[in-house]
Specification:
The protein is globular, with a radius of gyration of 16 Å. It has six helices and eleven strands. 26% of the residues lie in helices and 26% in strands. The strands form three sheets. Strands 3, 4, 5, 6, 9, 10 and 11 form a seven-stranded mixed beta sheet that branches. It has a two-stranded parallel ribbon with strand order 1-2. A two-stranded antiparallel sheet has the order 7-8. Strand 5 and strand 6 form a beta hairpin. The chain has 200 residues and is of the alpha+beta class. It starts with a strand and ends in a 13-residue tail after the last strand.
Amino acid sequence: IVVDNGSRDPGTLSIIGGVADDPSCLVIRHDQPFNFSEIMNLAVSHATGSLICMLNDDICVLHSGWLKEMVGLALRPDVGIVGALLLFENGTVQHAGVTLGLLGHVAGHDFHYEAETRMRRHQRFGQVHQTSAVTAACAVLRRQTYDLVGGMDAEHLAVNYNDLDLCLKIGAQGLKVLWTPYARLLHAESATRGKENLSQ
């Protein structure tokens, strides 16, 4: 399922047109101001499977086993949502889990901008573990869990912290939020929209 949020670039429209011709794909137009929560809720409302993989358009796959790894964890009955190791193109870490209150902020990405090699020297980050939250740029969860917590908050959290809120709601249900280093992908964070000013 692809949600097209008012694309105008000819190259993008060409790609979307090609996908739309594939009977196994569904393209949904969302010609409204950008609201990530609303877009995700819309996509999930059209999904028919028991598992949801939220995947941003600025993600690049690095190996074939990433989805199998995340799905295997997400199918555990005690797990609510699973996040991946996301890297910038220069090999530094974009996402290795999210910690509440990191560096005095609402939340922050663990090892953000650090070299992946440095991160892996810490034993905890060489294995699957629980974390406060994971980014919805690449996350897998059961459809039942998404519905249970009411999905994403499109009214109050249109752009930022919607994935944090989703994970906290999942955790409040007694389900684990897991991060795995065995699903590695590139993430050109905010490449399609630009950086957000979180101080406003």
